[in-house]
Amino acid sequence: MHRISPMLAGELCVRDVVTANADETVVEAARRMSQYRVGDLIVVERTLPIGIVTDRDLVVNVLAWPERRPAEVHVIDVMQRELVLALEEDDIEHVLERMREHAVRRIPVVDRRGALQGILTLEDVLGW
Fold first, then answer.
1. Which H, E and C letters describe the chain, residue by residue?
2. pTM confidence score
3. How, if at all, do strands 106-110 and 86-87 pair?
4. What is the pLDDT tens value at each position of the chain, 128 positions in all?
5. What is the DSSP pairing of strand 106-110 with strand 40-45?
6. Chain centroid to CA 120: how far?
């Protein structure tokens, strides 16, 4: 009987990841999201992911507070620091389980050294 190999995170992920630096302003980050039509940026230090900032983070943590001046707020101030990561060789079923467990729709994909290699979204997996 022929066994079908599992689909791996590295096979489905988008390799062209839009990133941000922790010290840039949220205005710069929002412009990049708009330019590339994405809802999130992976925050990197060199090649290592250290956080994620989403369009929702910008709304809830910046725009909802009139006293905050977006040009003075930095990505590091609003990014989510606790990342749920997937390895390139992780089975998609395992990745989906981690996404479900942590209630996330996006997951950075890294190599064994921890360097960012791509991003995998629920939409990518489901083919939406």
1. CCCCCCCEHHHHCECCCCEECCCCEHHHHHHHHHHHCCCEEEEEECCEEEEEEEHHHHHHHHHCCCCCCHHHCEHHHHCECCCCCEECCCEHHHHHHHHHHHCCCEEEEECCCCCEEEEEEHHHHHCC
2. 0.89
3. parallel
4. 554 668 999 999 999 999 999 999 999 999 999 999 999 999 999 999 999 999 999 999 999 999 999 999 999 999 999 999 999 999 999 999 999 999 999 999 999 999 999 999 988 888 75
5. unpaired
6. 8
